[in-house]
Amino acid sequence: MNISFLDNWRRRHGSGREQRTSHPDASVDQEGVTELLSECELLRVQAESAGVELDDTPRSLEELDQLLPRWRDDPEITPWLGSDAGLYLGTVIVRTIAGAQWVIDSQDGAPVVRLSSGREMDVLEIGAEWAANGAPELSQMYAEVAEG
Fold it and tell me: How many CB atoms lie within 10 A of CB 11?
């Protein structure tokens, strides 16, 4: 997936193809990356219009799961909203679960979340499925990760 605002970050830290996700660059500013990836503007607009505050908490994931999926009527919005939902899920995980961090996938250069166990989550794929089908629920994915 091509996410334009990541291009500069990729140039500074490698495209992801040269780096293995199992060995992230220790000099990467995780908070800066998290801040960048947490923007999720389209998702925030959709949520705000429905009265949902995205405050980077697991509770906000539950509230997102309850939104009426009006975006599914617009096939151009759904993929972008899915990317935002995945990035937001990743943001909540990285900010609330000890040891979770962003890394770049060595296959396609997309951001993924690595848990302290070493498991990597393709949050963009999860978000795309959520936006298109409503499942898996974002809060359910978070709960599975939080359980360990």
Answer: 9
Nearest to 33 by CA among 84, 122, 94: 94
Asked whether the bond before 136 is cis by omega within 30 degrees of 0, the reply is yes
CA nearest neighbour of 138 among 82, 100, 96, 94: 82
> Would you give the DSSP letter of residue 57?
S
Secondary-structure percent of the chain, ordered helix, strand, coil, rounded to 5? 55, 5, 40
pTM: 0.81
Q: What is the pLDDT of residues 44-102, one digit of tens each?
A: 999 999 999 999 999 999 999 999 998 999 999 999 999 999 999 999 999 999 999 99
In a 3-state reduction of DSSP, which class is residue 47? helix
